[in-house]
Design goal:
The complex is a heterodimer.
Chain A: H1 3-16, H2 21-30, H3 33-50, H4 59-73, H5 87-113, H6 134-137, H7 170-173, H8 194-200, H9 208-214, H10 217-221, H11 234-238, E1 256-264, E2 267-275, E3 282-288, E4 294-297
Antiparallel strand pairs in A: 1-2, 2-3, 3-4
Chain B: H1 3-16, H2 20-42, H3 45-61, H4 72-93, H5 121-129, H6 132-143, H7 148-155, H8 159-180, H9 185-189
Helix pairs in contact in B: 1-2, 2-3, 2-4, 3-4, 4-7, 5-8, 6-8, 7-8
The chains are: A alpha+beta, B mainly alpha.
Chain lengths: 298, 190
C-alpha cells in the first residue's frame, strides 16, 4: 500500500466515523508533521519525568523542619501527640538492623582475623585493642552535640531545656523485644513512645533522636544491604539513650551509629561505629549498655 | 471531597483549638510533597527546606482564614509554589553575584542523599531552564502527578492555562534534554 493510499484510507475512515476517538486523534496527528513532532517531544518529556522517583525528606530533615516551624510558631515542643512514624523511617531502621548484623559479624570475627590488631588470642572479645586514651576518655566531659547544624537553612537549634522530671524507664519508652516480629523489623520503631524517649533525651532538643539514630548511619548503611531481623530489639534501638554524642572516642569526628548489642565480660554492651575525620576513617567503640561507660575502642 | 481533604479540615480545626498533635499530623501528611515541590522548583535541598519552612509558617499563621471551601492541600501547595517563585525572584536579583556552593547538586555520598530520590542531574538541569511558570506546571502535573484542575486551583489560573504551560513546558524540557545529551549539538557549540 502506498503512502497516498494509506492517507486516503485514514481520511475515509475519519469521514466515515469508523475510527474510535483514540485512533481518530492518532490519525490526525499522523497527518500533521508539526503535531507528530510535538507528540514526540511530549512523550520524551513524560518519559523523563516519569522515571523520576518521588522526593522525600529524610527523617532528620523532617524533624528539623517541624522543630523550626514549631519554634517560629511558638508551639510547645511537648504535650502534643507523637507524629505517626513514616514508612521511610521504618525502612531505615530495618536497614540499620541489617547493617548492624553485618558489622556485628565483622566485629565478632574481627579478633579471629586480627582486624583490630589483637594480641593473638582469637575468639575472645577482650582481644580488641584498647586505644591508648580510652581509660581517660571514658570519664571525659561530654562534648557538644554536633549534628544540629547539618542544615543551616531550615534547622533552628533547640535551646536545651533543663532536666526537671525523672527520666522514664525503658519499659515506658518501648515494649519488650517480643513485640518485634521477624518479618517486620523496622515496624518496631512504631511502638516507641517518642515523647517518653524525648524526656530521656531532654536537654538535647527533640531532633536528637533522629539525629543519633539515623543521620550518621546512612553512609554506613549504604555499604551493607543484608537484613537480619534478629537484631531488631529494644536493646538495639534504645542504646541511643546512652547519649552517644557525649561519649568521646579517639579519632571520632561525628556522633555514633548503633551497630550491635552484644556482651562483653558478662556485661550488656553496645557496639558503636563513629565516623572519623574523613569518610574512610571509622572508629568502633564498645560501651556498657547500662552505664554507657566506654569499655573499648578501636 | 477526598478523605484526606476532610481529615485536613478537622485537623486545622483542632490546630486552631490549640491541639499541637494536629500540627504534627498535618506536617506528616504534607511535608514530603511540599518539600518535593520546593526541591524541584529550587533544585537545592537547603533552599527547599527553607521554602518548605516558610510555607508551613505562612499557612499555620493564617490557618484561621482557611474556610474549607477548597482542599487544604490546594492552598498549602499554592503557598509553596508562591514561596518558591519569591525565592527564584530573589535569586534572579542576585544573579550577578557568584553562585553559592549550595547550588551544586547534592553530594551523593552525603547522609541526606540516602533514599532522598533526587532528580537525575540531566532532568534537574533541563527543568531549571524552564520559565518558573512552566516549571511549576510541569512539576505539579508531571512530577507530582496532580490533576490539571488541581494544579490550576493551586496556581490560581484557568485549566487551559495550566494545560498550555504543561504542553509548552514539556516541549522545552524535551528539547533541553536532547541538548544536554552528551555529544549533542548544544554541548558541542559551548
Amino acid at each position: 500500500m502506498s503512502m497516498h493510499e494509506h492517507d486516503l484510507d485514514i481520511i475515509m475512515a475519519l469521514a466515515d466515523g469508523a475510527l474510535d476517538a483514540h485512533s481518530a486523534a492518532a490519525a490526525e496527528v499522523a497527518a500533521c508533521a508539526q503535531c507528530s513532532e510535538d507528540l514526540e517531544l511530549q512523550r520524551t518529556a513524560l518519559r523523563a519525568t516519569g522515571e523520576t522517583p518521588r522526593v522525600y525528606l529524610t527523617a532528620v530533615e523532617s524533624s528539623q523542619l517541624r522543630h523550626a516551624v514549631r519554634s517560629r510558631l511558638n508551639l510547645q515542643t511537648q504535650g502534643g501527640g507523637s507524629p505517626a512514624p513514616t514508612k521511610r523511617r521504618r525502612f531505615r531502621l530495618g536497614a540499620l538492623a541489617g547493617a548492624a548484623a553485618v558489622l556485628l559479624a565483622v566485629v565478632i570475627a574481627g579478633p579471629a582475623l586480627n582486624l583490630f590488631g589483637s594480641s593473638g588470642e582469637t575468639g575472645d572479645s577482650q582481644n580488641v585493642a584498647f586505644a591508648p586514651e580510652a581509660a581517660e576518655l571514658a570519664t571525659a566531659a561530654p562534648t557538644a552535640a554536633p549534628t544540629q547544624a547539618a542544615h543551616g537553612g531550615a534547622a533552628a537549634s533547640a535551646a536545651p531545656a533543663p532536666a526537671a522530671t525523672p527520666a522514664p524507664a525503658l519499659a515506658e519508652i518501648a515494649p519488650s523485644d517480643a513485640a518485634a516480629t521477624a518479618d517486620s523489623p523496622g515496624e518496631f520503631v512504631d511502638k516507641i513512645e517518642l515523647d517518653a524517649l524525648r524526656q530521656r533525651l531532654i536537654g538535647r532538643g527533640d531532633t536528637a533522636v533522629e539525629d543519633v539514630l539515623l543521620n550518621p548511619a546512612y553512609r554506613v548503611l549504604q555499604q551493607y544491604s543484608a537484613a537480619d531481623p534478629a537484631l531488631t530489639s529494644r536493646a538495639l534501638l534504645l542504646r541511643v539513650l546512652c547519649d552517644l554524642e557525649s561519649v568521646a572516642v579517639p579519632y571520632a569526628a561525628s556522633p555514633a551509629t548503633i551497630i550491635a548489642f552484644t556482651e562483653f565480660e558478662g556485661r550488656e554492651a553496645v557496639l558503636v561505629l563513629y565516623q572519623g575525620p574523613s569518610d574512610e576513617a571509622l572508629s568502633l567503640a564498645l560501651l556498657d549498655a547500662t552505664t554507657c561507660e566506654l569499655l573499648l575502642s578501636a | 471531597m477526598t478523605d484526606r481533604a476532610t481529615e485536613d479540615i478537622g485537623l486545622i480545626a483542632r490546630f486552631l483549638d490549640g491541639d499541637t498533635a494536629a500540627f504534627d499530623e498535618l506536617m506528616a501528611a504534607h511535608e514530603d510533597r511540599v518539600f518535593g515541590i520546593c526541591l524541584r522548583m529550587l533544585r537545592d535541598r537547603d533552599a527547599a527546606l527553607d521554602a518548605a519552612q516558610e510555607t508551613f509558617i505562612t499557612v499555620f499563621r493564617k490557618a484561621d482564614r482557611y474556610k474549607g471551601e477548597a482542599a487544604f492541600s490546594t492552598w498549602l501547595y499554592r503557598v509553596a509554589v508562591n514561596t518558591c517563585y519569591d525565592q527564584l525572584r530573589k535569586a534572579k536579583r542576585k544573579a550577578a553575584q557568584p553562585l553559592p556552593d549550595t547550588l551544586d547538586p547534592p553530594d551523593p555520598k552525603s547522609a541526606d542523599s540516602f533514599d532522598s530520590a533526587e532528580l537525575r542531574p540531566q532532568i534537574e538541569d533541563a527543568l531549571e531552564t524552564l520559565p518558573p511558570e512552566f516549571r511549576a506546571a510541569v512539576v505539579l502535573v508531571d512530577l507530582e502527578g496532580l490533576a490539571l484542575e488541581t494544579a490550576a486551583n493551586m496556581l490560581a489560573v484557568p485549566v487551559g492555562t495550566v494545560k498550555s504551560r504543561v504542553f509548552r513546558g514539556r516541549k522545552l524540557l524535551a528539547k533541553e534534554l536532547g541538548n544536554l545529551r552528551p555529544g549533542s549539538e548544544h554541548q558541542k557549540t559551548e
